[in-house]
Each structure stands twice: as structure tokens, then as C-alpha cells.
Fold:
Amino acid sequence: MEPRDLSALSPYVPGRGAEEVARELGMDPADLTKLSSNENPHGPGPAAIEAIRETAPRVGVYPKASQTDLAERLANHWDCTPEQIWVAPGADGALDYLSRAFLDPGDRILAPDPGFSYYRMSARYHHGEVTTYALRKADNFVQTPDAVLDAYDGERIVYLTTPHNPTGSEFDRDDIETLAAAVDDRTLVVVDEAYGEYTDAPSAIGLLDEYDNLAVTRTFSKAYGLAGLRVGYGAVPEAWGDAYARVNTPFAASEVGCRAALAALDDDDHLETTVETARWARSYLRDELDAPTWESGGNFVLAEVGDAASVAEATQRRGVIVRDCGSFGLPTCIRVSCGTRQGTRRAVEVINNVLAEVRA
Ligand SMILES: Cc1ncc(COP(=O)(O)O)c(C=O)c1O
Structure:
């Protein structure tokens, strides 16, 4: 017995976890500063924590009302209908639902390179094929319709990430409109706004009334501090919102996750603190790191450090975990997530010391 040919599928490479690294180094995880996965350094807010506690006695039943409540709450927030909100286990889950709804075997997707690897993985899981468009370091990873259209050849799904992981660059909303209008009728443009809360740019969800070939994905993993609960969603045009019922995994977003997400949506203070800290950390990283960096709309900064694998390993030995971007095809770059003020200052000190030693 063997699984199907999985040779074209590559495993996801996550940022390294604090517990895993602590075990390896014989350290207490609390002594590590983990800035490798763009998580919220403040964790979940008090309202979400309270909702998690309150929900605990009710997890014996399948989550039905909570998913409906979350879709309604989000529809209210985004001024669309609940049918347009596809609640999912993380934004990754929403990407899978879009793959399920759109890809026939052999259909191609067009994804950014460098870029978030799950677009490619999801396409391959669904028997699709992958092509890429380049975001060039020489152009500061600028995102333009031309960069996408130069590579575009009628793919079934085109992925945009704004703010973009791992570079931080953004795709203008006017440019998203240009692109949605330029591609074939059969092409879906997916705008991944996993880091949308950290930028002032308006969400592309506002365009769903005008373009029926657009979908937007968002998550509670980043600014809402709920990565461990796996809740995200897709926002889609009204015209095909009802496809959700045919493609979603039943009850895949958990009762605890949905209740925590609902509470987090009402906790403006926590979101404000989170975004404010990230903005401070972003400028601190850009001002203080002894390495070239790129402007970022997200809760992370990309830095050019030379041999990223050695630098990341050396900072890790000193208790600061950053992301070596080799797996993104950027072997000379690290990505540093925005930490608390204290964590970010510590990270900068450690990274600068490592860089000084490497250069000496
Ligand atoms: C660009 C991008 N999209 C989607 C995700 C997935 O988010 P989730 O945790 O909601 O699955 C991530 C997570 O790192 C990401 O960086």
C-alpha cells in the first residue's frame, strides 16, 4: 500500500517554535524571544481569554451556532452578507476552500515568488499546478499589476499578498482593481490580507460588490493573537457565496476558536495596542538594525544579513529566534517579527552583535 505520488508536494517549513528550540538548547522557553512566525507578542486579549474559559464546558457539542454567529458578526463588520463569509480553520483553511471550489485537476495557479508557500501547497493538494511571478529584490519587491501580468497566462487562480510575507511590500487597492479587470473572466484573484490590520490601506473586501472574480482571505492568527486556535475566513462575492456549503469541511472551525474570535472582534483596545506596538517595532527595527531592511506594512521586517542560516542559528543560540528566509528563496535575508518593545530591543541587540562578529 502506498499513497499517491507525493513527490511534487513539499512539506511546509514553519518558523521554529520556542519550546522546540528551548528543548534543543536546554533553555527555559520563557527566556527565548520568538520572532520567527509573525505572531502577536501580546498573545490573545483578555476578552478572548475569557471567552475561551467560558466556552470550555460547552465543547461537547459540534460548533454550529458559533460559526453562524461569527459569519454574521464579520458580515456586519465588512458590510456584506453572512453567505459571503467563509469561516475556516485559519486563513490556510480558507485558501483550501477556494482551491476546492475553483481548481479542476491540472488547473494552474499563479503565486508570488518569494511568497507564502501554502498557495502552492494547497494547489498541489487539489491536483492543480503551480506557476509563479517574480517580486524582485532589485525593485524592492514592489508589487504591480505588470509584475503579475507579465507572467500571467490564463491561470485559474492568481494570488496577491498584501502586506506581503516575507517582504512587507503592499499591493495598492487601485492596482488590485486594474488586475481584476485585466485577467480572464475565468480567473479568480485571491487577495491574502493575513496582515491587513497592520496597514492603513483599505481592505479589498470593499471591492467584492464590483468584481465577482475576487476573493479576500483574513485571519485571527496575527493581530488578534489567536494563532493556536486556527480561525480565519474568506470573503467572497455574493454571486458564488453559496459554494461554501459544498466545499467546507463540516465544523472545521472550532467552538472555542469561533467564540474567542467573536470576543476578539469586540476588543478594540487589544487590537489597538497590538497594532501600535507593531508600528513602533517596525520603525525600531528599520532604524536600529545594522543591516539593510525593507519598508513593511506587516508586523515584521525583512533584513539583508549575508548568510541568513548562520545568522539565524547564532541569534537562536543567544535566545532570539528569527526566520531564516532560505525557504522563501532569500538565503541572504532574515525576517524579524515585531515583538514587544522589550523583546524587539533585545532582538536588535542580539542580531547586531551577531552581525558585528560575522563581519569581524
Ligand atoms: C501571508 C499569509 N497568509 C496566510 C497565513 C496563514 O494564516 P493562518 O494561521 O490563519 O492559517 C499566513 C501565516 O503565516 C501568512 O503569512
